[in-house]
Amino acid sequence: MDLFIATFLKIFFIITPFFVLSVFLTVTHDATSKEKKALAIRVTISVIIISLVLLFFGKHIFAVFGITLDAFRIGAGALLFLSAVDLIKGNKDSGKVGDKDISQLAVVPLAIPVTIGPGTIGILLVIGATLKDTSSMIMGSLALVCAVLVVGFMLYSATVFEKIIGKQGLLVISKITGLFVAAISAQIVFTGIKNFLGL
Fold it and tell me: What pLDDT is recorded for position 101?
């Protein structure tokens, strides 16, 4: 039970649920409640699948493709920066949200790299390495799924949060979130470059 609680809390906080929620609200501001709920479910399923794969096979996948965590940091950071620019500028294309467009947000950028960023991947790789026996693997997996489900529930209830915040508040959050996303993406890239070059 201690392993379950420790793993749950570690994963829940490394995902940064309120940051994920603010990005979710920002990129889906013109979507209907039904579309948001459908997207929330897709994001949750995507994150669970990706997280479990990384937990059990992350090191092997990175080794097979010759990818280092620092290389992933640089790539994910660059991708995240493009999302940040769209948030700050208020990209006109994001105003037209159809079923096809909104479904494309589920994996990139909402699942990766917003929810599962390099930091989360690093934690998952470390946790995966510490799960030695079957019981600890089951506990670790359950804790991971529960943590993601809690975040998924927050996204599913995004409409409630949006009503509380209001359109003007959402606009402010959009700009502020964009700035934070840009800063986080820059930090991710700089950390990747620094570690890659051994500085």
Answer: 67
Share of the chain above pLDDT 70, in %: 94
The label of the residue with tokens 């997280």 reads: 51
Tell me how many degrees the CA angle 64-65-69 measures, rounded to the nearest 5.
Answer: 105
CA angle 174, 178, 183 (to 5 degrees): 150
Structure tokens belonging to residue 87 = 């948030």
Nearest to 56 by CA among 117, 138, 146: 138
Q: What are the residues whose beta carbons fall under 8 Å from the beta carbon of 43, sequence distance 6 or more?
A: 24, 105, 106, 110, 111, 115, 152, 155
What CA dihedral angle connects 58, 60, 64 and 70, to 10 degrees?
50
pLDDT in tens, 70-128: 888 888 888 778 877 877 876 544 444 444 467 888 898 899 988 998 778 888 887 88
* DSSP 8-state secondary structure symbol assigned to residue 199: -
What's the 3-state SS for 52-112? Answer: HHHHHHHHHHHHHHCCCHHHHHHHHHHHHHHHHHHHHHCCHHHHCCCHHHHHCCHHHHHHH
pLDDT tens sequence across 165-178: 877 777 787 788 77
In the chain, the amino acid numbered 140 is G
